[in-house]
Amino acid sequence: MSRSYANAINVPEHGTWPSILALIIGLVYGCVGVLQLLVGLGFIGAIVGFTDPVGGFLLIIVSAVFLTGVKPLVRDEQEGYAFIAVGYILAAVMFALQVMVIVTNGLGWVLRFEDWLAWSIYNDMTPSLWMFVILMTATGCLWILGNLKEKLLPNSKGVS
Asked: Running DSSP on this structure, what letter comes out for residue 1?
């Protein structure tokens, strides 16, 4: 298989680690999405920030995208990286929308609109917000560790 695409975006020589990352991300997003869906529908007691069943469904969709990319990555197929990219894009869009909700609710609270007088930021701290922050932090740490490994062991890519 040609590694031209993988070399261009500087991914590992085989898809084992990216597939493990996609599997973990997919499972976590899926579990939290199901939990949010169950809380939103009233099957489980209330948890702060987990009240939106639509948000839970969207987290399950992000999970499905990541999990769909696992099999191609294990087989070292390039299309697996596209699933990871789309998963990150969907997670980023959900994060941005939640930030906009927080900003608009905060603006309504600052302007003292009647419906926003009892607003609290804790209710807007949904899983789509904090899970994306965790996802980007973990990805950044993995990127730093990968670059550190490459600097410490510069010939590790060329050795087969």
From this structure: -
Between the alpha carbon of residue 62 and those of residues 31, 74, 128, 135, 137, the distances in Å are: 11, 19, 10, 12, 18
**Is residue 130 in a domain?**
yes
Show the domain range for 108: 11-152
Q: What number of other Cβ atoms are within 10 A of residue 117's Cβ?
A: 9
pLDDT digits (tens, 9 = 90+) for 38-78: 988 888 887 877 788 888 999 999 999 999 999 998 888 88
Residue 87 is assigned to a structural domain of this protein? yes
Query: What's the token pair of residue 137?
Result: 């932090």
Residue 1: is its pLDDT beyond 50? no
Taking the CA atoms of 40, 43, 46 and 47 in sequence, report the sign of the dihedral they define: negative
